[in-house]
Write a structure and sequence with these properties.
By secondary structure, the chain is mainly alpha-helical. It has a domain of 113 residues. Helix 5 runs antiparallel to helix 6. The longest helix has 53 residues. The radius of gyration is 28 Å and the shape is elongated. The mean pLDDT is 83.
């Protein structure tokens, strides 16, 4: 619960930063539009006000960073401690099992359970939980603030969001399937290594070192190819997200620029929306 509280406080101060920038931009445009000699007024009268706005933004960013650190310190450290306890319990349970269990199950599979599977549980309890709560709270704050400013611009800004969600779901499913293939291949390689080490005398007596070296090299090559396939999907994942976010930014600037010319929103509101998209 303490981690969730830190998530909420971090996003609260994060949302206040674009609002402060909006107030600063509207204040500068209003003051400069009323005066003719803007260069003198900018240094003499607007300087202290700009420093005040800048200090406010820095202070809010510092508070956001502090609670973000506390959020990671609580949730991520908690997941690491759970991972450590799970591995200790699994290892203790392995020691209690009889010899028949190890005859039925390969050592590589057991090693994969205590390494890869436990790491995935930690990823779920730590980063997945943290980012899930973080995105939910941040979306609630940002969408509520957007519709308060201008509902039309908010709808256009959120228009690419369904496509972004579908693309993330599709790519994540591919990543999950290829990660399972990598885990199975890693389990196979671990089993081969264990069997070779345990039967090294028999292998040497029959002079089969080169054959087993070739076999292990081939299986390692298969693992490398599957890992590269996963890396290619990950390489396309982030550019796709950046593309959709950039399209949303362009759409916001285009529609928001028209609303600024119609005096329905201010230039500060437009800058505020662009910052919301970036965060």
């Amino acid at each position: 619960m303490l981690g969730v509280l830190f998530v909420g406080l971090s996003n609260f101060f994060l949302v206040l930063v674009p609002q402060t920038i909006r107030k600063a931009l509207d204040f500068i445009i209003e003051r400069t539009s009323d005066d003719i000699n803007t260069q003198i007024d900018f240094t003499e009268s607007l300087g202290p006000d700009i420093l005040k706005f800048a200090g406010t933004v820095i202070g809010l960013s510092a508070l956001m960073g502090f609670f973000l650190y506390c959020m990671r310190k609580t949730i991520i450290v908690m997941s690491r401690l759970i991972e450590y306890d799970m591995r200790k319990e699994i290892y203790a349970h392995y020691q209690k099992l009889d010899f028949a269990f190890y005859k039925k199950n390969r050592t590589g599979d057991l090693m994969a359970r205590i390494s890869e599977d436990v790491s995935k549980v930690r990823m779920y309890l730590g980063p997945a939980l943290m980012y899930g709560i973080n995105v939910t709270i941040m979306f609630s704050f940002v969408i509520f603030t957007m519709f308060q400013v201008n509902s039309t611009l908010a709808l256009y800004t959120l228009l690419p969001l369904p496509f972004l969600s579908l693309s993330i779901y599709y790519v994540s499913s591919i990543i999950h399937k290829r990660s399972d293939l990598i885990q199975k291949q890693l389990s196979k390689i671990n089993s081969i290594s264990q069997e070779v080490y345990s039967g090294i005398r028999i292998i040497k007596s029959y002079v089969k070192e080169r054959q087993f070296n070739k076999y292990f090299r081939e299986e390692s090559t298969v693992y490398k190819e599957k890992a590269l396939d996963l890396a290619r999907v990950n390489a396309l994942f982030f550019p796709l997200m950046i593309l959709l976010v950039s399209l949303s930014t362009l759409l916001t600037i285009y529609i928001g620029g028209q609303l600024v010319f119609k005096d329905q929103i201010t230039a500060g509101n437009l800058a505020e929306f662009v910052i919301y998209i970036i965060i």
